[in-house]
Design brief:
Length: 242
């Protein structure tokens, strides 16, 4: 098994790893587990499931079902976790976000993945290897890198929002996950997909005075999600590099 080690060069300790995984969300954890399974000891840098803990409201339910899981080997699945906890999948439909976060913790433990709680600040290529600098200042030399930083850094806010509204009057759904502050408020939600309607419901439950949802597409029919389109795309990700 390839193991991460510490290398001492120029008076500096440098972690040396065959595989650096940046991010410890579902993709980072799934990649790390699969790597371990095939004998590669990865170095995983990030905060486990941070996006799920910090950018999703605790009352949220998932749209994906119990058949979605993190294990490429199909062993430590969400269904297996529910079975171990004695939870009937029918009773966990839809899946509360906290249950999926707990499953991810269980999966991480089962897969023996240790996560280094840090952030990668810089990544460059040197002498055929990758060199990463962490926020803590530590350096990592990696043969291969899997980048799984998720969508947190790619929030898009239309220009007109910041131009027309003062900062205390608007939020992006990734930053507003506690709704108490909007109790009694009149709220306009711009956008009409999952986050929009999920936030509308949570705001109503929290006691917002009025909620309007505006969007440019037809009103969703709120039918159970059909995810079959994903299978073909997933197959392509492994057969078409890049
Ligand atoms: C409202 C909402 C509802 C959703 N519902 C579902 C659902 O029902 N089912 C479903 O499967 N998916 C759902 N998703 C999508 C799901 O959140 C993403 O598909 C999933 O989180 C992607 O996993 P990831 O590992 O790529 O990224 P993330 O979960 O975003 O994890 C990335 C991690 O990398 C860390 N990171 C970022 N930069 C660095 C760095 N430089 N160094 C180290 N770490 C870094 C981040 O802090 C984060 O912890 C939903 C998303 C939203 C917003």
């Amino acid at each position: 098994m390839s193991v991460s080690s510490i290398e001492h060069t120029n008076g500096e300790n440098r972690l040396r790893t065959p595989l650096l995984v940046i991010g410890a969300g579902p993709h980072g954890l799934a990649t790390a587990a699969y790597a371990r399974r095939v004998g590669i000891e990865p170095l995983v840098v990030g905060q486990p499931m941070a996006f799920w803990r910090e950018s999703m409201p605790s009352g949220m339910f998932l749209r994906s079902g119990a058949d979605w899981h993190l294990d490429a080997a199909k062993e430590n699945t969400l269904i297996a976790y529910l079975q171990e906890r004695g939870i009937d999948p029918v009773d966990a439909d839809p899946i509360p976000v906290w249950l999926f976060i707990e499953y991810a913790g269980w999966f991480q433990e089962k897969a023996g993945i240790e996560v280094t709680p840090d952030l990668v600040r810089d990544l460059s290529r040197k002498d055929g290897r990758f060199e990463a600098t962490l926020q803590s200042g530590r350096r990592v030399s990696a043969e291969t890198v899997v980048v799984a930083p998720g969508i947190t850094h790619f929030t898009v806010v239309p220009e007109w929002v910041e131009e027309n509204l003062s900062p205390e009057h608007w939020s992006h759904t990734s930053t507003i996950i506690n709704f108490e502050q909007l109790r009694g408020a009149r709220v306009l939600i711009i956008g009409g997909r999952q986050s929009a309607f999920e936030w509308a419901t949570l705001l109503a439950e929290e006691g917002a005075d009025a909620i309007h949802v505006v969007h440019r597409h037809d009103t969703p029919d709120f039918a159970p999600a059909d995810w079959s389109f994903v299978d073909g795309l997933m197959d392509l990700t492994s057969s078409v590099p890049g």
